[in-house]
Structures are given as C-alpha cells and as structure tokens.
Design a protein that fits this description.
Number of domains: 2
Helix content: 25-40%
Structural class: alpha/beta
Low-confidence stretches: 1-47
Strand content: 5-15%
Oligomer: single chain
Bound molecules: calcium ion
Radius of gyration: 21 Å
CATH class of the largest domain: Alpha Beta
Strand order of the largest sheet: 2-1-3-10-4
Length: about 450
C-alpha cells in the first residue's frame, strides 16, 4: 500500500475517533486566552495572523461564529487559509469552525440538520448540490433553501485510467479508442467500468462530457458508478476498475504511485471551468447578512493570497497539516505548482494556470459565482435526465438559479472590501467553449442541448 493510501486510512481513523479541533479552541478559551487563528492547525508553524480590519459599525457582523464543512481536497484551500491566516478574523468572524466531512453525502446530511442540530451551516459543495438540496431533490424531499455565495476554485480535476489500458489512445480525444472501449464486453466479459465519488455532480459531469465527446454513451456503452476513492484506486490496481473521475491530489498520485495514467485534466476539457463553491443555508444568511459578507471578504482575501505563486509553499504546509488533508507535503506540492505527470507517453503538463486557481484566471473571475455557470450545471443535468420530473426544462433551471445564486451578496462584499477592480460587469461569463468545439451560450441553452449528439433529451 502506498504511503498516501496509508495516510488516507489514518485520516479516516482520526475522523472516526472524533479528534476535535473545536475542543482545543474551547480549552484555550477557558484558560483566558482568545482563540488563535493558528490554534487548531498543529502543523502550520509559518501561519501568521493578519491585523484586524477597521470594521465600521454598519458592517460589523451579527455573530462571530459559523460552522462550515469541507472535504480535504484542493478545492477547500480558501476556507482553510481564511481560517488559518486570520482572514475571517480580520473581518470580525473570529470563531469560524472548519469541519472536515467524511464525504459528500455526510456534508449534505449535515447541512440538512444545520449547525444548531449538530450539523453544519454550509461550506464547500460540488455543483449543483446547493440547488438540489434547496429543491429537496437529494434530501428525500426535505427542502433546505441554500444560497450559492462564491466559487472556491477552478481546475484541479481530471480523469485517470488504469495502466491496463496504456497505448490504446485514451487521451483527451478518445474517438480513436471508442471502439476499444465499446467492445469491452466481447474482449473482457464485462463493460468498461468508470467511477466518480458522488452522483449527478462535478466529477460525474466531467467524465460524462469527456466520454460523450469521444462518442461513448456513458449510460449505454460503459458502467459508470459512484465508488469511494480508496476503493476505486484499489480497483484500478487490481484491474477491476478502468477509469476514475477525480480531483487533486489523486491526478498527481495516479501516475507517481504507478496506479494508472491521466487521460486528461478537466482544464483541458473546459478551460477554467466552474468547479466547487461556497454555499450556506439561506436561513443563516438571511438572519446574518453582515456576517455573511464578512465571511465572503475573508474568503476573497484568502483566494487572492492562494493565487500568489510565492505563497504556494506555505499554502501546502498549512493544508497538508494534521487537521486538514493530513498527507505528506510532497503529495500536494506538484499540483499546486501546476505540474502533472500524464503518463501513457503524453508529455507532462507544467503550467501554473493549469493547476487550481482561486481568485482570478486568464478569462475572468474565479471567486465570483457567475449565474451562467450554475445554469450550465442544471442544463447538463437536463441533458443526462438526472432529475426527470423535478428539473424538466431550461426555464425551470433558470428559476432555480435565480433563487439560489446570490451573486448580489458577493458584489456587495467585494465592494465593501475594496476589491472593486475585480468585480465582473455581468452575471454571465459569456459563451463557453469546450475542447471538442461545442459551445454553451447561456443566452440559449436549448441550442447547446440540440448541438449535442449523445444525450437523454
Ligand atoms: Ca472537485
């Protein structure tokens, strides 16, 4: 078993054992010391608090605390950095709790309960989980209204392929390998098997888009299923799993651990695509509008910090720590430098802008939650017939986006914090272009759906 896998197991054990960062802060508070921004890191000696901002009375948050969930992957960096570098505290949110979630289903269940019931108020999400939770679609009918407030990151994901398929032409464009994949049952006695970690969200969308662009129908030609990451990696090692749609640090580990190769990075499929988001329960935001903006300001400043190449080494030190990713620094350093070994004879990718970005990318804002991106996720859900009877058409999708996406709050927070130069002028990033030449015009999602060959509608 690799060192990474060992650490992964150990991390899971720590979660199970209930090691609580909150209790450390509580004890320190009892001893008369204010909670320190670095107090629950245990492994970030370089982290230093930034000075507290002069907060005008009309911007002072109603509360200083909130509980936000995160999944230990690169997408979570702005939340961790805002906490550890003191950016939340700078804007008056001195008691933000960042709570590691065992998986996406746990995060969903915990936000449905809410922090008052022992769960979480919000946090990090794949898309369109906040919309689906709002509509009660993935919560057994229980509607828990949520607001999308910021995007956390772009890039940082990819599709890994088992080493058993080396030399078959399974790269970004798989048209030449489509027959090999499609004819798998006759050559191997089973369908080509691919996995993601949570259904009907980012990883599921990315691998479906990539497969369909190459002429593979993901619902007919292969088995595409939800499997936990550790189990998927084991399956790729022993030859029972063929492909894995995943996020960093896996795309880096896949090749270095000799598990497989990378067919593509998601940034190659859709440059600077929307990835994961900050969303919080609407009841919490409605009750605490100033605290919401204070949180956003902290996250925005953390995102700006994360994007400075000279801060990436410290970022790696902080996020790899015991309470966060709990993995060796070497595992996470290359993706944060934009370095990916692709394997299978493909040249490595070495481009800072191809790794995770948090505040800005070469074509727009990363942090600002463009409504046009929410609309793509719901349009793509219609494409694959994910929520038939619940999300039927583009008009309904737009209505859900208008209800859930609160880019207006992001704008106000950015304005108040003085980040005016980086506030987009439109709620749309404009026409999106995919690697296969397909375009998504947010003004006309129906034309996008019509232009696609493989779909359920
Ligand atoms: Ca992701």
């Amino acid at each position: 078993m690799s060192q990474f896998s060992n650490n992964y197991s150990r991390r899971k054990f720590l979660i199970t054992a209930g090691v609580s960062a909150a209790s450390t802060i509580f004890l320190k508070g009892c001893l008369g010391n204010p909670p320190e921004p670095t107090s629950n890191a245990g492994s970030s000696p370089t982290a230093t608090a930034v000075p507290v901002a002069n907060i005008s009375p009309e911007q002072a948050p109603e509360v200083t605390k909130i509980k936000l969930g995160f999944i230990p992957i690169v997408e979570a960096a702005p939340l961790i950095i805002a906490k550890e570098k003191g950016f939340f505290a700078k804007y008056g949110m001195s008691d933000v709790e960042i709570s590691k979630q065992a998986n996406w289903a746990s995060a969903r269940d915990n936000v449905t309960i809410g922090a008052d019931g022992g769960g979480i108020d919000g946090g990090q999400w794949q898309m369109p989980m906040p919309h689906l939770i709002t509509e009660g679609i993935i919560t057994g009918g229980k509607k828990v209204p949520m607001y999308v407030l910021a995007q956390l990151n772009t890039n940082g994901n990819g599709v890994a392929i088992s080493n058993t398929h080396q030399g078959k032409g399974i790269g970004l464009n798989i048209q030449g390998a489509a027959e090999y994949i499609r004819s798998f049952p006759s050559t191997s006695g089973r369908k080509f098997k691919a996995a993601y970690t949570f259904p009907n969200a980012n990883q599921d969308f990315w691998i479906r888009y990539w497969l369909a662009a190459g002429g593979i129908d993901p619902d007919v030609d292969i088995d595409l299923i939800a499997v936990p990451p550790a189990e998927t990696v084991q399956g790729m090692r022993n030859g029972t799993m063929d492909a894995f749609s995943t996020g960093d640090p896996w795309p880096y580990r896949i090749v270095s651990d000799n598990i497989g190769f990378m067919s593509c990075l998601t940034t190659e499929v859709w440059p600077y695509h929307p990835e994961e988001y900050l969303a919080i329960r609407a009841d919490w935001v409605d009750k605490h509008p100033k605290a919401t903006k204070a949180l956003l300001k902290g996250i925005m400043e953390a995102q700006q910090w994360c994007d400075k190449p000279e801060n990436r080494a410290e970022l790696v030190t902080i996020v790899s720590g015991r309470n966060y990713f709990n993995i060796p620094k070497e595992v996470i350093t290359p993706p944060f430098q934009g370095n990916y070994q692709m394997g299978d004879g493909k040249p490595p990718i070495q481009d800072f802008n191809k790794g995770p970005l948090y505040w800005k990318d070469p074509i727009g804002s990363v942090s600002y939650p463009y409504k046009s991106h929410d609309l793509w996720f719901l349009t793509e859900s219609i494409r694959w017939g994910f929520h038939q009877g619940q999300i039927q058409d583009v008009a309904q999708a737009k209505a859900i986006v208008d209800k859930v996406n609160r880019e207006d709050i992001w704008r106000e927070a950015a304005q108040e914090a003085g980040f005016t130069a980086d506030i987009p002028t439109s709620t749309s990033r404009g026409v999106e272009k995919f690697f296969d030449g397909i375009t998504f015009d947010p003004q006309n999602p129906e034309a996008y759906l019509q232009s696609l060959t493989i779909k359920k509608v």
